[in-house]
Structures are given as structure tokens and as C-alpha cells.
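JOB MANIFEST
job_type = single_chain_structure
chain_count = 1
residues = 88
[input]
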Amino acid sequence: PFARRGGDDHLQRILADWAVTIDASANIVVVRTPPGSAHVVGSALDQAGLPGVLGNVCGDDTILVVSADSDGGATLAGRLRVMAGLDD
């Protein structure tokens, strides 16, 4: 397990600064960031140790976050959107 550094507060700051969009499908959440920034958000997700998150894979500007629940993507995306200030 990863050591928690600031937990949800740290993740909330990172998401608010770097997440552009957050969408879901089944158990996958897709987080879009500015180019070259996905690793910052992915690292914060790992460090937060959110329950129900199996892990994430980062590209240049896209992160795939995998929910442990087969239909948990929408719930997880909603939580991340609220943390990022992107909720509707």
C-alpha cells in the first residue's frame, strides 16, 4: 500500500488544479488533464488510497482509474468531480 500524504485534502487540491474532465463507463473512470499532467493526478490518486479504487494508469493527459465494483465508475467519477469542483 502507498503511504497517505494528505489523503483526500491533497487529492482535492490536485484535482481542482489539474482535472479538466472526469467521465465514467462501467468500472472505469477517465480523468483528462492538460498535456503532461496526468502523472501528477495519478500519483495523488495512489497516495490518497481511496477505498474501492484498484489502481490507475496514466498517459500524457489521460488517466484510467479502475473501480473495484463492476458498476462503480459512475459513483467514483461523481466523487472525484465533486472534489475537483467539476460537479454539475
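[summary]
The radius of gyration is 11 Å.
The beta strands are 21-25, 28-32, 53-58, 62-67.
exit_status = 0
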